[in-house]
# Entry
Amino acid sequence: MPEELRKQSLMRLEETVVSSRVRLARNIEDYFFPVRMSEEQKESLLVVIEGLCQEESFCQKAGQLLFQRLESIPNQDKSLLLEQHLISPKLFALPKGTGVITGLAGRISVMINEEDHLRIQGFSPGFDLEDAYIIAQNVDQAFEGSLPLMFDEEKGYLTSCPTNLGTALRASVMLFLPVLSASERLSEEIKKLAREGYALRGFYGEGTKGQGSVFQLSNQVTLGMTEEEILLELEIKARALVEKEWEAMEAWSEEDRFRVENEARKSYGLLLHASALSLEEGIKIVKDLRLARRLDLEFPLVEGITGYNRLIYEMQPAHLYEQQTIGKIYREKKRAELIRKTLLSEA
Amino acid sequence: MLCHECKKREATVHIIKISGSQKTQIDLCPVCAEKYHKDMKNKITLSLDGKSLLQAILQDPQKFGVMFSHAVDEKVCKTCGTSGKNIRKTGLAGCPDCYETFAEEFESVIDRVQRGHVHVGYVPKGMMESIEQKKQLKIWQKELEAMIRDEAYEKAAELRDRIRSLEDHHA
# Structure
């Protein structure tokens, strides 16, 4: 690939991919799967895992980790874990007999007694599935050395759901797709990807129709492919989607461009002058201004993309919570300040 | 050749199905072939709309060609007590033995969503040895049978000892 094209493709990836995640499901022998476990069984497994997290040999392999029972976590902190994707909505709703391990400054989490005994997740900012996999794999290896994991010669890692058998690996990348999602093209892509064994969903909770134009692309196939094949194929799919997003932009008419520019200017004005911003307003501003980076509007905004990536997570409600300021309007005030501080280069 | 599906009419349509590295041929009569194509079309126009694949399957198993019929209600897993009704409701196995008890149902899910029926990825370190040993045992068993057939009893006795020692090690 000529140097210029290579640079362009890198820039497009950086502008479009928000973060990468890899999840491994593991189960421990001699226990039923969580759906069938008694409270005593769940408790007994929690005790085993808690003990493990305090063992020196385990920590040497897995790193410094914090074990918590879900029921011991205050609601607000639990919401924060959910917003950071460190726990799933399912675990959030299951406070009894469940736990979570976190570490590496929010780049690793292990959900305990969710659908499987262990759901090990590695996170990486930007487009780096390999890095996310290495983080998860490292903790997986520590468990492998300490506990008898369910494994079958034919089915691979045994999981409660047949859709996770084999590698039990689910990888995902978070993508910013404002142009595709504004047209019919996205639903076509979703159908096409579903046929090929991939799911594309909105970021802000299941069922949300891609608010903020942030989507999550993940593999559905876990059996019959190696870990490397799964990660590589997902990477190829993600790259293709990024290219389609930018090609769709190249096909803009004058009018399309005018509309986008106008939305960006309105959002910029709102950001400059609003005292408080709702989540919906915040999401729209970040989306409009991020999209405007692809145009030449000369707003005095930060150059790097990392602030935009961080805001997707950090402007959610639990991130803005403070003991003293519980009122919604104070959170909205904090949101306006946070977005200004993150995006305005002069602020 | 008779149709693979109805087993009545002559098969004139030959479909080659490739999943992963496995290649299978299905021979159908024109009537069943049309139905097959219709089914395939139904299968591939699905979108998930934010649902998990499992949720989508549970909502309409037939559309996915998944065998979660009421017939499964009769079955119960002897190990963990998971009933066929549970399976139809949650799609989840209660324990590893459920994969035996509800083999037909789960295999049909695997057929639909996975790219093969056999794990080809990472094998945990401790397991590698035992899997290799199991394979070795199978090979030796076959050799042993051949030796006995050929009346090479001395060699067979030697091999039997080796098999026993590996089995002991395995246990």
In short: The longest strand of chain B covers residues 13-19.
